[in-house]
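User: Hi! I'm working on a homework problem where we have to compare a predicted structure to a textbook description. Could you give me the structure for the chain below?
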Amino acid sequence: MRVDRSDVQGLVASGFGAHPASTLLLMRFGPKGARDWLRRLLPFVTSARRGERLEPVHLNVALSFMGLTRLGLPAETLAAFAPEFRAGMAARAPVLGDVGEDDPRHWEFGNAERPVDALLLVYARDEPILEGKRRELLGLAERFDVSCLELPTYLDPEHREHFGFRFAVSEPRIRGGLARGRGGVSLPPGELLLGYPNVSGERAPTPLAPFRRSTREAPLLGPRGCVDLGHNGTYLVLRKLEQRVALFWSTAQKLARRGGAPADPGVVAARWVGRWPNGAPLARYPDGAPDSVPEDDRFTYRNLDPEGRKCPVGAHVRRVNPRDGLAESRAHQLVRRGRLYGPRALDPAVDDGVERGLAFVALNADLARQFETVQQSFVNGPSFGGLRGERDPLLGCDAEDEAGIRRAFTEPGFPARRRTGPLPRFVRMRGGEYFFLPGLCALGYLAEG
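Assistant: Happy to help. Predicted structure tokens:
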């Protein structure tokens, strides 16, 4: 089934790799004027149509459940959205493991004190072009009494996050003429967009809205004369994740000096992540090793037995991309569109006091089955792939296992595996929300009144 790319927002089909300068604008509507603001914004929104790929700026718009409510949708339409979306990310904190220092009370946005109605995702070829569009958008927001919290982001030329590892190595391919991905599994469009069959042949529930005479776009026409508001739309997950780079590498160095462990902290860190910094599998060391690893340290890994060279079962990439019978991988895939925020650390081993991290953005058609299952069962699940009492070494919540060990990690080895810990918190949750990224026709409907 082919997807009409002209009705799909561009982020669905592309991470805008040719547009490394970017920013996220978190909008809060005033007492009135939200629909007028959205109507004036529509001409700037870019679709997934191939002819628009060379545009100097790409702008996409997503709305939270509160934002849709404030746009005046009827109660029966709002009730048809996914229950997780209606509740909001902060209310789902117990399910997502956002407890302790990750509790929504500490968030910079997305909680009861700092709600978000809309998200603007802006991508540009360079910083001057981005700055021009940014000023234009902020001026438009001020005109219609829309307040804004900005999160400047960017795309690293080598697609590496602040710990130094290449991310989004294995993105899924979406059939129907959409995202090509990078060697990941092939998925039907229903895993990403509402209104299409998913891996089980089912279609995610889609909200219907009352028909208006001004609604002329044929793709929106649904059953019983209603408007299919979810057609070509998807749910967007935003999580601002602070990365504690100095703590990450100082802990790797400390564990590397312990008896029986590899003498190279890069090996310790690569086991936590599940890949080498350049994205190569662990078994391809030293060819896939980073250039910064001294040649003298490479013999340590080269001389390990084959069991010791395997990717640990509990490594980050295996948890967020389950394989090998650990789960039905096709049913839990996400399309990731994350970017960095904050400057690069000049010396990763030194804490300079500057906040930096990842603006995690993911798209999926079913929040409960896709994102929340990955977060709850794979990232924070204490029982994963035969392990007991362990969580994701990077993203796992800070909770004790049954043995009273906090954030333990099992490394492969012969004749027996070795468990290390406790690991400190390398990543902290700073804010987030669930959004709906509508199709272009649906955006036009929302802007009407």
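For your comparison, note the following. The mean pLDDT is 87. Residues 240 and 404 are 29 Å apart (CA to CA). Good luck with the assignment!
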